[in-house]
UniProtKB/TrEMBL annotation:
GO biological process: dGTP catabolic process
Source domain of life: Bacteria
GO molecular function, one term: dGTPase activity
Domain HD: residue ranges: 64-195
Signal peptide annotation: none
SMART domains: HDc
Database matches in NCBIfam families: dGTP_triPase, PRK01286.1-1
Family annotation (CDD domains): HDc (cd00077)
Protein family (similarity comment): Belongs to the dGTPase family. Type 2 subfamily.
SUPFAM superfamilies reported in the protein's UniProt record: HD-domain/PDEase-like
UniProt keyword terms in alphabetical order: Hydrolase
Entry protein name: Deoxyguanosinetriphosphate triphosphohydrolase-like protein
């Protein structure tokens, strides 16, 4: 990566790892981070964790795994155009959801409610805990021992009460600084991916319709362009080409607006990036269009009665599991009973957050359903 901008993060200017290691051979420090994330147990579990729809609802809906791969692809493409460190963007993108609960945001909200007397639950913080503590693969350290910049990038937001416990990796929240441009970019790539791909999954499910989306500016504009270029197109091809155009346009806008912001500030290094306002941003027009799309998805997809039913069942499952383990820790697997003596109720949160959708459902059945088999 000899063509990196001077304000990009490189292996040479990284703030290193919690446990010092010999430099990797044949790959960069951030390629090593990416590889460790991909080979982690938590990453494999993302295949069976929900994006919007519960995992067993359909085979073609996105999961946390496919979402993370899409975020990484979008992030790498934009990073290349901005001369940022693609490998760091990819490592952050692949790791950002490692701490997510089963059942998506419904599961996270339920676990946070259950943990409110014990410090709460934040999935960003849990993702950091996964890579710092919970992964058990290496002889020399707990977790994955990732670079500071990857760990920092995972923390998109965190509450004040928890950030004070994080030390150096959470310091920017206390002194009002920004993370690297690579971390900023991974955050926006996440937004691009979930907005556009939730449209796709929403249409596939039938919970939202083309006629509804035609009233949304960014969708309507690209739908018209596709119909103009391909007059006989229809069905899935029409949807795919429209969403493809949306992704391309917002990614291009983010690239051009961010380039302009960077040129105005003219940062010479990472320290100037940290003290500047957030430089990775959409133009005002695209920002407003993205917000319109978000609002539409919230009102029509995430609050659709069938999604609400799934969410309520998910919340009930998480609450029942937590309450059962909390009332009698002997119901926990032996390893987590031992961890409870060390971490307290955080061990219960670790166990539940690590579950896939289907494992959580089976665990619920094992605890509460009497089976004849």
């Amino acid at each position: 990566m000899n063509d990196l901008a001077p304000y990009a993060v490189s292996s040479a200017n990284s703030r290193g790892r919690l446990i010092k290691e010999a430099p990797p051979i044949g790959r960069s420090e951030f390629q090593r981070d990416r590889d460790r994330v991909i080979h982690s147990t938590a990453f494999r579990r993302l295949e069976y964790k929900t994006q919007v729809f519960v995992n067993h609802e359909g085979d073609l809906f996105r999961t946390r795994l496919t979402h993370s791969l899409e975020v990484a692809q979008i992030g790498r493409s934009i990073a290349r155009n901005l001369k940022l460190n693609e490998d760091l963007v990819e490592a952050i993108a692949l790791a950002h959801d490692l701490g997510h609960t089963p059942f998506g945001h419904a599961g996270q909200d339920a676990l946070n409610d259950c943990m409110k007397e014990y410090g709460g639950f934040e999935h960003n913080l849990q993702s950091l805990r996964v890579v710092d503590v919970l992964e058990e693969q290496y002889g020399a350290f707990d977790g994955l021992n990732l670079c500071f910049e990857t760990r920092e990038g995972i923390l998109k937001h965190v509450s004040r009460k928890n950030v004070e416990k994080l030390g150096e990796v959470g310091e920017r929240f206390l002194i009002n600084q920004r993370p690297s441009l690579e971390a900023q970019l991974a955050n926006f790539a996440d937004e691009i991916a979930y907005n556009t791909h939730d449209v796709d999954d929403g249409l596939r499910s039938g919970f939202i319709t083309m006629s509804q989306l035609e009233k949304i500016e960014i969708f309507s504009r690209h739908l018209w362009q596709v119909k103009r270029d391909y007059p006989n197109i229809g069905g899935r091809r029409l949807i795919h080409e429209t969403i493809r155009g949306m992704i391309n346009s917002v990614a291009t806008d983010l690239t051009l607006q961010s380039k302009s912001n960077i040129e105005n500030v003219r940062p010479k290094g990472i320290d100037e990036i940290r003290s500047a306002p957030c430089l990775i941003r959409f133009s005002e027009k695209i920002k407003q269009e993205q917000q319109e799309l978000k609002t539409f998805l919230y009102d029509n997809l995430y609050r659709h009665f069938q999604v609400t039913r799934m969410s309520n069942k998910a919340q009930h499952t998480i609450e029942m599991l937590f309450n059962a383990f909390n009332s009698d820790i002997r119901l926990l697997p032996t390893a987590y009973q031992i961890k409870f003596s060390q971490y307290g109720h955080q061990a219960i949160a670790d166990y539940i957050a690590g579950m896939t959708d289907r494992f959580a459902i089976r665990e619920y059945q094992r605890l509460f359903i009497i089976s004849e088999s």
